[in-house]
Amino acid sequence: MRKLRVIVNAVPLATVNTGIGRYLRCLYAxxxxxxxxxxEVGYFDGRRVLPTPxxxxxxxxxxxxxxxxxWRLPPLAALGVRLARHCQREAxxxxxxxxxxxxxxxxxxxxxxxxxxxxVFTVHDLSLLTMPEHHPAERxxxxxxxxxRRLARVARFMAVSRFTKDEMVxxxxxxxDRIRVTWNAHEPDVFHPVDAPxxxxxxxxxxxxxxxxxPRKNLHVIPRALAASGLxxxxxxxxxxxxxxxxxxxxxxxxxxxxxDRTLAALYSKALALVYPSRYEGFGLPVLEAMACxxxxxxxxxxxxxxxxxxxxxxxxxxxxxxxxxxxxARLAGDGALRREMSRLxxxxxxxxxxxxxxxxxFGEFERSLAGPAG
Length: 375
What we know:
Elements: E1 4-9, H1 20-35, E2 39-44, E3 49-50, H2 60-72, H3 75-97, E4 102-105, E5 118-123, H4 127-130, H5 137-151, E6 154-159, H6 162-172, E7 179-181, E8 207-210, H7 221-229, E9 235-238, E10 254-255, H8 261-270, E11 273-276, H9 285-292, E12 297-300, H10 305-309, E13 313-316, H11 322-334, H12 336-350, H13 355-369
Parallel strand pairs: 1-2, 1-4, 4-5, 5-6, 6-7, 8-9, 8-11, 9-10, 11-12, 12-13
Antiparallel strand pairs: 2-3
Helix pairs in contact: 1-13, 3-5, 7-11, 9-12
Domain Glycosyltransferase subfamily 4-like N-terminal: 19-185
Domain Glycosyl transferase family: 203-343
Protein name: Glycosyl transferase group 1
């Protein structure tokens, strides 16, 4: 029997290993492991198709600095950079996709494809539509130039949470029967309780935030909450600096920038808690990674976050309220029994998410797409 030929836009794998890149790397490792006898995957790296996933850049810090620079360009200049790069990649992709059965996209929107190729599109969130004020202006304009006209050519959709699926139905008017929920997961061989050295700048007791300084994530509230709590416990942040221009108050955090997985797992394992007061997430992978490392999680009861944390999370009534957050952080810092119980619950909760299950659902959608519209 002929293998199902799938081409995936693997450009995010050739960049810094966060977000969509991590999703693709973990998902396709599980797909190759579980369905390699029925599946032939071509990885498009922006220029050509490779038989194996592209490697991230050797100098991740330099790549992160380049991204920061793009965010700081005037909107029209940044949009021009995006469009020039997009046109080059789409032309290369069109040539590369000929002869494939299925095209899988997991970034902003799908490329145009040759006739006969079915498109399966993973949607991580709709914040570019529902919260455009929390994104760089050039990114929003780029997205809106292509997103809606490409939806009509998608055979099957996947959503990384029930919350995201519900938004796709409500905001985009999609038929829910065309959308399959395929949750994210964590990597058990990476994210588990570890006793490893921390970076020299990190003290013995600290709270942790992981992610970009995107305004909707409310990072700027945490130092204010710590100041109000009276605790002598710093905040450590891991991730890109992001594009937020929110005014900072309170003691400045210890900023580690982009952090390798091994160090990230150690941070999760030793933090008093992950503080993740985001107002909107399509999934919220740092919450799951933290729980897998036995780290208590303080988060918001909004969007997808309760779907991920379940009964293992401590929820803020208002993630933008520093006084309410201060009370919860003080309680956690002073109650070792509570931290141990949250750690136990988090480990159990994290065990419910599996990349093998996500791969099973994804392969099923690839097969179902063959009955849908092509090209």
